[in-house]
Design brief:
There is one protein chain. With 237 residues, this protein is α/β, with parallel strands linked by helices. The protein has a domain of 132 residues: 3-Layer(aba) Sandwich (Rossmann fold), CATH 3.40.50.300. Helix content is 36%, strand content 26%. It contains 9 helices and 10 strands. The relative contact order is 0.18. The mean pLDDT is 95. The chain binds adenosine-5'-triphosphate. The site of adenosine-5'-triphosphate (ATP) has 12 residues, from strand 2 and helix 1. Keywords: ATP-binding, Nucleotide-binding, Transport. This is ABC-2 type transport system ATP-binding protein. InterPro entries: AAA+_ATPase (IPR003593), ABC_transporter-like_ATP-bd (IPR003439), P-loop_NTPase (IPR027417).
């Protein structure tokens, strides 16, 4: 398994954000992670990315326990956080070079050229990040996340706030990356899941309330599209 989560709990003060969730993602799959605001998606993703400790439970990335061997687990993981924090004063190439240095990538120049090509940044690569449109900033965030060529990619609402063209283009980038990598993708856009995801999980109030391969949606929930199912399941709670 690329991602294996067992009975994961996260408590912030008195609030239980994750109430013991368990799920798995097989290698090479794109998993859509759906849930209403405050359901626990970002919390789960931060824990899997190694940037937030869980309260209890286990999470393995490519078989590596994120609590016992965080550094090793993070080598297998690329993470694009929800607010995509970037150095706006840096040039695209400069930022990528900086991140490549953090990862100790040997052949920086070639790898940076590769990720620029993969993420469609070629035309904008000589600009400052602050001068880029939101869609291109998302590409820089994705480029940073894949520099060290991780097997697992965790993307927290990568298409939120994009115009329809950029949204379509970023989806294509994610789909392309999903050919080789395992992707965990959170989104509020149901068509996005239908367009690019192999599997879907719906989380609500810190609990997983549904999970299935997209190909089984119709068999499991006849005459129901994903949006209707989402509203039905998350309203019932
Ligand atoms: N640092 C924090 N301190 C206290 N509570 C927090 C903290 N971060 C998140 N929470 C709470 O934990 C719950 C889950 O939040 P989380 O950000 O994981 O949800 P989400 O599904 O990503 O939501 P959204 O779709 O709005 O991004 C929410 O009730 C939120 O208010």
């Amino acid at each position: 398994m690329s991602i294996q989560v067992t009975q994961l709990v996260k408590t912030y003060g008195r609030q239980q954000a994750l109430k013991g969730i368990s799920f798995e993602v097989q290698p090479g799959r794109i998993l859509g992670f759906l849930g209403p605001n405050g359901a626990g998606k970002s919390t789960t993703m931060k824990i899997l990315a190694g940037s937030l400790p869980p309260t209890s439970g286990q999470a393995l990335i490519c078989g590596v326990d994120i609590r016992l061997n965080s550094l090793d687990a993070r080598r297998h993981t690329g993470y694009l956080p929800e607010n995509n924090p970037l150095y706006h004063e840096m040039y695209v190439q400069e930022a990528l070079s900086f991140v490549a240095g953090l990862h100790g990538i040997a052949d920086k120049t070639n790898r940076i050229a590769e990720v620029i090509e993969l993420t469609g940044l070629t035309a904008e690569q000589h600009k400052k990040i602050g001068q880029l449109s939101k869609g291109y900033r998302q590409r820089v965030g994705i480029a940073q996340a894949i520099l060290h060529n991780p097997e697992v990619l965790i993307l927290d609402e990568p298409t939120s706030g994009l115009d329809p063209n950029q949204l379509q283009e970023i989806r294509q980038v994610i789909k392309l990356l999903g050919r080789e990598k395992t992707v965990l993708l959170s989104t509020h856009i149901m068509q996005e899941v239908e367009a690019i995801c192999d599997d879907v999980i719906i989380i609500n109030q810190g609990e997983i309330i549904a999970g299935f391969p997209m190909a089984e949606l119709n068999a499991r929930y006849p005459d129901t599209d994903l949006e209707t199912l989402f509203i039905r399941l998350t309203h019932a709670n």
